[in-house]
Amino acid sequence: MSEPRIVVENISKKYKIGYEKKQTFLEKSVSLLSGREPQKEIWALKEISFSIEAGKCVGIIGHNGAGKSTLLRIIAGIIKADEGIIKKTGRIAPVMENLGAQPRLLMKDSIFLYCSLCGLRDVEIKKIFQPIIDFSGLEKFVNTKIYQFSAGMSQRLFASIIIHIDQSVILIDDFSTGSIDTQFLDKWRRQLNRLVNQGSVLLVTSHDLDDLQNYCDHIIYLNNGRIIKTGDSEKVIKFYKSSLK
Amino acid sequence: MTVWRRNYHLSLGLAMTVRKDGIPTVVFRQLADYSLGMTGGEKWRKSNFMLNIQYLKHFFRLSWILAKMKFKLKNEGSYLGVLWYLLNPLLTFLLLFFIFHDRLGREIEKYPLYLFLGIIMFNFFQQVTSESSWAIKENAGLIKSIAFPREALIGAIVINNLFSHLIELVVFLAIAIIFKGLAVGVIFYFILLLFFCIFNFGVGLFLASISAYFTDLQNIWSFFVRLLWFGTPIFYIIAGQNRLFTINLFNPMYYFIEIGRNLAVYDQLPALWLIAGLAGFTLASLIVGFFTFQKLKNKFAEMI
After folding, report:
1. C-beta of residue A171 within 8 angstroms of C-beta of residue A95
2. How confident is the model at residue B4 (pLDDT cuts 50, 70, 90)?
3. Is residue B200 pLDDT above 70, yes or no?
């Protein structure tokens, strides 16, 4: 058994959310004037523990708001957990979502910016710059600004960047990305498969259960911030489907 | 993963580390709480010192890159481009000069240079701080999707405004040549500028982190800066007004602008108490800004 690439120990995270509280007249007028609403705490994640070995693909399933994205963000280091620790080896790049953050940059500048933000040096960026463009199939648009891209095109670009950055744990939010065409999606997944076989860990979330069952080795089923079931993808998905009925 | 340790964060960035061998040590808390570009596994092996160096390198590189990107975006589709940087201080200068040059201008030696340097130095401070107070909200997209040294956002703002300050400085030199008042001390102005950048960076960090939580600060700050503009001797001179002088002892901008004028306008060595004040304010700003930012930055992604 190989050493785990990532170990998550007792991760808990709470958020403050607004809610309808029975208030006295005074309280109500104060919150109306100051613009601050009453808030309560909810646990977005509670005592999450798991570890993943090198070369595994793990899927996370659960309803909307179950804590899937929060978990990925905590692993990526974007959000800090309130409790628990994460031990990880190797680089972890951003959670893949979209490239919309700086829409007025040229495509070539965006590639450069995102790679730098991930901590790559100039030499490393130069090495992967052309491969990213070739893989994305967007050669014609290198000098185009991102805001002129269609949703699918910008996802394509980001998907290409993600797989070219050398990283040990690849985090992908919403694996069955809607706007990418199937042809590119297949190519992209073959490349991801290759990376997993080389020893990367792939951690994805999705709502397409059949897709995950085919692709992932293990599934983590989250509900209300707790792990309900983990294990072999077929079993967990069967359990998930039966719990829906 | 040889050494397992758990960090207990105490206040003000100090952390107690208990190593596997059970020896508790108090260390300077590592900056690299984020996974960063550096490899997370090394996080457990390398010393905090090395990690901080790596983090700093990443910070400087990113600040520079973000500044370049910002510069490109700022001048996008603009015909006058960089010239816009000059317009605001230049117009303020011309206006104030025409209003005051008859009276104050006679009292104050080299009034055009006195006035212009004051304006551009205050402008630098004002730009950095007001941009910083928006920095976290403006970059919500980046902050929410990538873990990178958040300080670089403020670093980029300082670099960007330093660039426009340097352009303004060229105009200053031009005015100095026109009025035949070019001072050799201008060379030493660049040392002051280094401190000024650090000071602005510290204030920027403080404002950026607080205003992510406390939105009112952006409004309070823009009002405060306006007050400060009138409180600082930019277009007038203190000259024996005791109460004004006492108040200005607590105004860091007074020290910076006064020393700047000593060097670049009057070719004098600034008084020692001015230099001490400047060093004190710079250090205080950096320390307060740094620790406030460290304390609050972990929640930025949730606040926006």
Report:
1. yes
2. very low
3. yes
Closest-CA residue to A97 (of B59, B72, B301, B132):
B301
B139 touches chain A (CB under 8 A): yes
Strand order in the sheet with B6-9: B6-9, B14-18, B24-28
- Reduced to 3 states, what is the DSSP secondary structure of residue A4? strand
State the angle between helix axes of B272-296 and B252-264 in degrees (0 to 180), rounded to the nearest 10: 130
- Interface confidence (ipTM) of the complex: 0.85
Are the C-beta atoms of residues A92 and A77 closer than 8 Å to each other? yes
Give A120→chain B minimum CA distance, Å.
7
Report the alpha-carbon distance of residue A85 to residue A6 in Å, rounded: 11
Instruction: Identify which of A76, A95, A118 has the shortest CB distance to residue B37.
Output: A118
Q: Which of A127-131, B75-79, B146-150 has the highest mean pLDDT?
A: A127-131
CA A200/CA A104 separation, integer angstroms: 33
Chain B hits for A95, Cβ within 8 Å: 145
Contact (CB, 8 A) for A85 and A96: no
pLDDT tens profile A38-54: 778 888 898 999 988 88
Q: In what order do the strands lie in the sheet with A39-53?
A: A39-53, A4-18, A83-88
What stretches of chain B adopt beta strand conformation (E)?
6-9, 14-18, 24-28
* pLDDT-wise least confident of A89-93, A196-200, B181-185: A89-93
Helix (H, G, I), strand (E, B) or coil at A42: strand
Model-wide pTM > 0.95: no
Whether the per-residue pLDDT at A20 is higher than 80: the answer is no
Distance of CA B94 to the CA centre of its chain: 26
- The DSSP secondary-structure symbol of B7 reads E
Q: Which three-class secondary structure state does DSSP give residue A185?
A: helix
CA–CA distances in Å: residue B302 to residues A16, A139, A227: 10, 36, 22
Inter-chain touch A118–B144, beta carbons under 8 Å: no
Give the model's confidence band at A1: pLDDT under 50 very low, under 70 low, under 90 confident, else very high: low
Tens of pLDDT, residue by residue over B238-258, are: 888 889 999 999 999 999 999
CB-CB under 8 Å, B39 with A105: no
Q: Which two tokens stand for residue A236?
A: 């967990």
Residues of B in contact with A121 (CB under 8 A): 61
From residue B181, how far is each of A184, B110, B114, B177, B262 by CA, in Å? 67, 7, 11, 6, 13
A120 interfaces chain B, CB cutoff of 8 Å: yes
Please list every residue in chain B whose beta carbon sits closer than 8 Å to the beta carbon of residue A79: 298, 301-302
